[in-house]
Amino acid sequence: METKTLTPAVKGSNLIQQNYITEEGLDIVNRHISLFKQFIQSQMVEGVDYGYITNKEGKPISDKPTLFKSGAEKLAMLFSFSPMYEVDKYEDWDKGIFRYEVKCSLISRKTGEVIAEGHGIAHSKERKYRSNKVDPFDLPNTLLKMAKKRAFVDAVLLATGGSFFFTQDLEDTTEPIQTDNSNNISEAQIRKISVLVKELGWSEEQFKNWLKKAAKVESRKDLTKSQASKIIDYLQKQLDEKKKQEPEIEEPEVQEVSDDDVPF
Fold first, then answer.
1. What are phi and psi of 259, to 5 degrees?
2. Which pLDDT does position 36 carry in this prediction?
3. Cα–Cα distance measured from residue 193 to residue 217, given in angstroms and rounded to the nearest whole number
4. What three-state secondary structure class fits 128?
5. Sign of torsion, CA 227 231 232 234?
6. Which of 143, 177, 195, 205 has a Cα at 20 to 30 A from 47?
7. Reported confidence tier of residue 165, pLDDT bands at 50, 70, 90
8. Sign of torsion, CA 213 216 221 227?
9. Reported confidence tier of residue 262, pLDDT bands at 50, 70, 90
């Protein structure tokens, strides 16, 4: 069988001859980059709109800064883009497994055209969401927001050519999970647990060993508010059962004392 060699319709050496690259085009690109730099310097704040993610030694893990959501919003405003989202979700409430895939379409407010599409995925099996301190049933809203943010930033970088200046996803893989502090165990719950443990007659060592098996945490301070409530209910029931089994102590009969019995 005869082998045929396929050749491209336009060879790389002929690009300039075919007017694929023009001086006018280069001027437009250079002007775009120059104005983009001016906007970053004058309107965007490092640490708020973008930032360098560092490792444990304090060294940046990328030559480019990471674009944060607030920075992406400023760029979308600059280019007159409006985001539209489509969400594909998987939710298993019995197993606590959640996955959200979002497509973000950037629409030009001037023409109504779709300029770019970005994609973002977030799920409960990501490493930073597998901590014992994170209740998986508190995650759906957080995961959906994260997927939308990833899709939005992806779309903005594509539509604006922002990848020349910024990178994406490093913020997601290195920053700690942003959780609501109100989900942490309260001081009142800590005190209540301590009182119940003492009334049950458990030593601190006994309670810690039990807590490791029951909640997979090292200390009561590592519990979520939801976990603490369940443990308080359990300990209270144990204490109630213990009190039922204890014999009641009869109060001594009070006898009337006459004036003759008073020694003064």
1. -65, -25
2. 87
3. 15
4. helix
5. positive
6. 143
7. confident
8. negative
9. very low
E strands, the chain, are: 50-51, 66-67, 81-92, 97-108, 114-123
Q: Is the pTM of this model over 0.85?
A: no
Specify the pairing of strand 50-51 against strand 66-67: antiparallel
pLDDT of residue 83: 96
Nearest to 170 by CA among 61, 247, 87, 264: 61
Nearest to 139 by CA among 92, 172, 171: 92
Give φ, ψ of 104 to 5 degrees: -110, 120
Higher pLDDT, 8 or 56: 56
Backbone angles phi, psi at 110, to 5 degrees: -85, -40
**What pLDDT, in 10s, does the model give residues 9-43?**
444 445 445 556 777 878 888 888 888 888 988 88
Phi, psi for residue 66 in degrees, rounded to 5: -90, 135
Of 177, 178, 179, 171, nearest to 54 by C-alpha is: 171
Structure tokens, 253:
């009969």
Q: Return d(Cα 49, Cα 31) in angstroms, integer.
A: 23
The C-alpha angle 47, 50, 55, rounded to 5 degrees, equals 75
Local structure of 101: helix, strand or coil: strand
The pair phi, psi for residue 100, each rounded to 5°, is -130, 125
